[in-house]
Amino acid sequence: MNQDNFILKNSRLIVLAFILLGSLFTVIGALSANPTRMWQIYLVNFLLWTGIAQSGAVFSAALELTNATWGARMRQVAESMVFFLPFSLILLLLMIFGADYIFPWLSKVNISETKKIYLNLPFLFGRNFIGLTALTILSFAFVNRRRMADQKKNERPRSLAVVLLLAYVVVYTIISYDFIMSLSPHWYSTIMGMHFFTACFYTGIAMILFTAVFGRWRLFPENFMQDNDFHDLGKLVFGFAIFWMSLLWSQFLIIWYGNLPEETEFLQLRLFEEPWRTISWLVIVFGFITPLVILLNKRGKLNQWVAGSVASLILIGSFFHLFVLIVPSLMPHHFTFGLMEVFVTLGFLGLFVLAQDIRLRKIPIR
Fold it and tell me: Domain map of the chain by residue range?
């Protein structure tokens, strides 16, 4: 098997072209007359790809903690996504240059003195950089110790898995507060943190499924991923589709049942006003209805091309899920999706694929 074939030479040029074009449009957008448009899509992609990358380590840690053996091959695919995390730290720091356009509480919206203690730029970027750096170190330490335990029969890194999972919950809850809720500083939600890190994990396992299908075609030998692997992963995606939707419903239910009119504005804009209403329903169709209908049947899970197609729709739905959470808070009455959004997204995608390829080409096939 030639493991250099995950990204062929011609394909690698395309990936590099995506990165270069994405970088070019990022600079052009930042220097344009409307920098908010570029920085909001930058934030959407930062949260999407960082969450996917982190979920690879979380998936492996969950298998380790539960002493699961059914995902031995899939966890190697999952751990390849971790290699994007160092890049995400750099991308986070670059976001400082667009802070004035991302966070309305810096200049456009007045907030109380109490909130200013928490919502100030040095503290916000400081805590998130420290948190993501700690998660990156924990993720690489866990992956390396897990691999050594497999190769040399060392002690299993279960204690490290516990620390990683707890840190993931805490750090990604803070990220959801800082980079989603703070964009609407007078709106609050007690379920947003759980919803966000669950959505990131759900998107991550969809990416694992998509990569497994693509890898079976391009990288792995036919016997590396068995049909039962796709069946198991399909069941996991199916289960998290239901859980993800239940958290969305819980957010609506709390506001309705608790009669909290001060919290309705956030949902009113996204569920009842165009074009956000259409996008929100597309998110539900791609992220919930499609996997529910198709993966309910065993044949849908076993057919790798069907499962891979469902995974790709979930990834698209996850992108627009973050899009509809972030963009209406910054530009509520203006919807624009053109070359700027496409090429910035392709730039992030190219960087993620290039980072993942570093590890995928080194997977030991047994």
Answer: 3-360
